[in-house]
Automatic annotation (TrEMBL), chains A, B:
It comes from Paenibacillus helianthi. Belongs to the peptidase M20 family. Gene3D superfamilies: 3.30.70.360, Zn peptidases. Signal peptide: none annotated. PANTHER family: ALLANTOATE AMIDOHYDROLASE, ALLANTOATE DEIMINASE-RELATED. Keywords: Hydrolase. This is Allantoate amidohydrolase. It holds the Pfam family Peptidase_M20.
């Protein structure tokens, strides 16, 4: 069956993006941190906007905002689409907001053009994904999928010492009418944020990488979101005089670290895509030009879309680091600070997206998301899909973040077609 | 000719070392920075001490203290011996002070035992060598040898903004009777600190390295003080997302730096002793665990006792660094921040020291000094020699700095014998 020509008005979406970008604390780019006045105003604005375009608006105790088009045939399971509404400090106006603005625009267009869907559609504006204010990520989608309970809200604080719970209360959350139960251990739950009615999840997002731009393709069909391992390493040697200590009598923590980092890079290149391995932070002690470094501390960030390969790569690196340290008489301490599993997207949804791109005559490619997204919380629970559009020069989390109106419109068209197929077509 | 058994009283020297160590600002170890009240008291104490043991005391405009035994035959050229009286912050009690205390003790012993020398002997307590208060080194011996003129004293300041000149004035320097002339450009000269009567320079010092301890030898006969090159390097790549940027599309400044540091170490090991090459300070920007480093800044400290080999090693390193940067699409900026020439010690004096060690039945070895010393300022101008004694675990510039009374006494005996040979024996 050939589906009708679908073309939601991109101008509406672009206007909505600009409107959202205005909810920002002063400074370069967009800064809209969780539970700040700017964030609160943005979520209220979105509620009004969704209501105006005919969506049934509801919110949850953590401040996620949903807009619903109830299905005429089947309303038990929801086809959810959207992204997050928070930003990093001095971020761009596309990361997260694009997926929300496009979903609102697509659903408005579909409702106006085709009436109510057969199956229920909802747009989600998740309250938080970035982890920029509090030391946790995915607070929005994590509450919906049951990753978090309310106890976390009392135990984590921002840099000013404000607890997550206090920040929520300053925004009038948990909001009226929400249930805040306690479990057997007395932990406060936010059960009303948890949802078991999500049947599918679709997220449109900017790539935040350079792959689509480099390969000159319009659409990325995400096959999986990578799993991550993060470690902190301490390499301990002996600080000593840079002039009076012969090369053969040194335990130079930095020379040992340099060998480790070269091995890490070599292994990563050998492993091939999509594996990436990065040391982003490194500190040398005592850090004086004429003293041999006695200690180096550094981070490791390793990602792959396949759990086994991620695991075996990390093992290979740890073994090699241990060998290097032992040979050099250095002490090595490694601590794992993060471990997330790869999240494969649903193959049938990926295939559907490829067909849509072909129908629309768009260039596209399969790819892996090296960054984390809300979709990875849904993927273990229901079929999930992600659509990427190009990011200029791969830049994100920066005021320089940019995708052209044409690129954004192409993503909107693909999302609209997928939502139509999922919610409107007879199965 | 067999020289008499010479054995200056080590207890006097050890007592003087303890007395000097008491002139310190509070805190661990010894802290006696240039032109502080502690420094001033130490230099006055030394003047009294030298006078008490029968030396003719004189000082110069920068606060160097000298004690003289005038020669009966030849008093035109002075055989100078000593070291510096300042310390680093929280330093030990041997670095510098040992060479002064041993020289005073040796000269006292020689005068009492043998009367006036044939040729003039002087002990020098140089005011400054370490560069711990002001951003310059060798202020004491540098004024005696003409490296500095008074203009410097008005242009450099300590961390509290006090100029070197103001600090001098707070100690009553330039002292009464000193001439402070101006040259053609109006620069203030401290001509009376400059001396053209130094015929020889001998310095006894702790090794500040681990070579003597490792080789279980009592005396190091220094063949040369290394020349140094210091550089700061900036490696500039592209900061990017650690998850979304494939390995093949990175300009990772830290990965490039790791390759450079590994090459540096490999080249240094290949070059062999006495070459040493060290990166002691390294900073990564932006320094976030999930961001590929866009820039790394680091220091290079390269030392060798032969000028040509030092030069060719630095050239080889610079060429290699350039190749690595170019291959990786990184920008490399190198700035030389220090260049000192190697200072060979006088071969005849080295030979005399070896004979003395043999006569005294002491184990000894030829070695290179990887650290800088006042002797390097005299070496281009007159025959110079340095004697090293072991430093426990090679530790210096620390309250842990230690050499045993026996090790210190052995150095004193060698110094005493050399001074006797130079000043008392018929040539």
């Amino acid at each position: 069956m050939k589906r009708p020509f679908l073309h939601a008005p991109a101008t509406d979406m672009l206007e909505l993006l600009e409107e959202l970008a205005a909810f920002s604390t002063p400074g370069p780019g967009v800064t809209r941190l969780l539970y700040t006045p700017e964030w609160s105003r943005a979520q209220h604005f979105l509620q009004e906007k969704m209501a105006v375009v005919g969506l049934e608006v509801h919110t949850d105790p953590v401040g996620n905002v949903f807009g619903r088009l109830s299905g005429s045939q089947d309303s038990d399971k929801v086809i959810l689409t959207g992204s997050h509404i928070d930003t990093v400090v001095n971020g761009g106006k596309y990361d997260g907001a694009y997926g929300v603005a496009a979903a609102v625009t697509a659903m408005h267009y579909l409702a106006v053009t085709f009436g109510p869907p057969l199956r229920t559609l909802e747009v989600a504006a998740f309250c938080e994904e970035e982890g920029s204010r509090f030391p946790l990520t995915f607070w929005g989608s994590g509450n919906v999928t049951g990753l978090y309970n309310g106890s976390v809200a009392e135990s984590v604080s921002d840099l000013e010492g404000i607890t997550l719970m206090a920040a929520m209360e300053s925004c009038g959350l948990p909001n009226q009418g929400s249930r805040t139960d306690h479990d057997d251990q007395g932990d406060r739950l936010m059960n009303s944020a948890r949802r078991d009615d999500i049947g599918m999840y679709v997220e449109l997002h900017i790539e935040q990488g350079i792959i689509l731009e480099q390969s000159a393709q319009q659409i990325g069909v995400v096959q999986a979101i990578v799993g991550q391992r993060r470690f902190t390493a301490r390499v301990i040697g002996t600080a000593n005089h840079a002039g009076t200590t012969p090369m053969g009598l040194r335990q130079d923590a930095l020379a040992g670290t340099a060998e480790m980092l070269s091995a890490l890079e070599q292994f990563a290149v050998e492993a091939g895509e999509p594996l990436v391995a990065t040391t982003g932070r490194l500190e040398v002690f005592p850090g004086t030009s004429n003293v041999i470094p006695g200690e180096v501390q550094f981070t490791l960030d390793i990602r792959h879309s396949e759990a086994e390969r991620l695991e075996s790569f990390c093992s290979r690196v740890m073994t090699k680091f241990g060998e290097i340290a032992a040979r050099r008489g250095l002490k090595l301490e490694l601590e794992q600070t993060l471990a997330t599993s790869p999240a494969p997207m649903n193959p049938a949804l990926c295939e559907a997206l490829e067909h849509i791109c072909q129908e629309q005559g768009r260039s596209f490619r399969s790819m892996v998301s090296g960054a984390g997204h809300d979709a990875q919380l849904f993927a273990p629970r229901c079929p999930a899909a992600m659509i990427f559009v190009p990011s200029r020069a791969g830049i994100s989390h920066s005021p320089e973040e940019y995708s052209s109106p044409e690129e954004l419109a192409a993503g909107l068209d693909v999302l609209t077609a997928l939502l139509y197929k999922l919610a409107y077509e007879e199965s």
